Amino acid sequence: MRAPILNLLLITGVTGASLAQAQTAAPVPQTAAVSPDAIKQREQELEAARARQKSAEEAQAKLKAEISSLGQDRTQLNQQLIDTAANVRSVETGIDEAEARLRSLNSREQAMRTSLESRRADIVEVLAALQRAGRRTPPALLVRPEDALQSLRTAMLLGAVVPELRGRAEKIAGDLGELVGLRKNIAAERDQLATDRDKVRNDQTRLAALVEERQRQQASREKDLDAENSRAIALSRQVGDLQGLIAKMEQDLQSAAKAAEKAAEAAKQAEAKAAASSKSGPAAFKDRSRTTPAILFASAKGLLPLPVNGNKIRDFGGSDGVGGVQKGISLASRPGSQVTTPCDGWVVYAGPFRSYGQLLILNAGGGYHVLIAGMERISVNIGQFVLTGEPVAIMGSTSQVASILATNASQPVLYVEFRKDGTPIDPGPWWAANEGEKVRG
Length: 441
Fold this sequence. Notes:
With 441 residues, the chain is α+β, with helices and mostly antiparallel strands. The chain folds into 2 domains: 2-14 and 52-217, Orthogonal Bundle (Helix Hairpins), CATH 1.10.287; 224-437, Glucose Permease (Domain IIA) (Distorted Sandwich), CATH 2.70.70. It contains 10 helices and 11 strands. It has helices spanning 2-12, 16-24, 36-70, 74-118, 120-134, 145-157, 163-221, 225-236, 242-252, 254-273, and strands at residues 310-314, 329-333, 338-340, 345-352, 358-365, 368-375, 377-378, 385-386, 391-394, 413-420, 423-425. Strands 1, 2, 4, 5, 6, 8, 10 and 11 form an 8-stranded antiparallel beta sheet that branches. A 3-stranded antiparallel beta sheet has the order 3-9-7.
């Protein structure tokens, strides 16, 4: 009779004392007066909430003052924008990696618990022997594996386990030790993940304020931005494809036409002085005050960063899922991910376009255009010059692009396409091979 009771206690994790308490506990009254301790706890929680609010307000005021001190210094603002965007994307990567490690650790923990559960009868027998040796109630195995592990170790050190059970006890102790270690690793990863999420929220708040200041300054310089943007949307409805859209913008829209002229002139100048320039590679991108591309787009091969953190799900030249060929690449990202520019260039279109969701088109000079689609919100205007690594958009929570560009419609997908003189080209040679080679603006 004793063994079944012991098994039941082990399975449920209920000790004799807790069982007795459950049997003798009085019914909980339907209404009870609030205790002084509960009132004190609520007061402490309210005070903590007030302190957090005050801290947030102080941080916001400090941030506004810091950004205000930048004034009209475009170089410093660019530096802050690019550095903060890089921090956000770095932490986003850390969160992705931590979540992947957590999934692996949780899978290992579940496998270990399943293994221990399948050997419950053997474990119960060993723990029952410990109970007889120590005259103590054995610990609940899978509720507190640390307690069971300590009991096993203590008994083995004291020689309380008979020789034929020692090997079995050592095996169980090893498995329980691994389970305890896994739980500690999981707790550490969760703490780090919480820290990273707090950091990315703070950085995103800072970045949003910097972007707002950048656009405020842009609006003060370009008085007719709203009218230009409205005209761009109206013109986009008159064309049916991307090439037609680019041509329409650069021919019929004043700000886009100016951007195209600047891009053409900058390309000529860059080509003329490229041979004499001592700056090449990433070093050419260090000047944050530049108003033209650092180098010719054709010379930037192997230097450009992907515009968003994510996994490539469609590559250039592959099937588009409907019998055609992919003209760009598709990147599956996290909801709300930061999108940055992969290159220097002028914005010739920024807004919704047919099945592409929000579409951003950059004129990179030399006949090259970069198209980025699928964002939820774009934060730059037509005619604006942007630097490599500058924040320009935010991903949504679901795919904004037509389903032919995504394998999972519920996941945000960014579509990126490079064009040379109107023809889609393989962007592969332009992407940096590793983190150290990426241009940081």
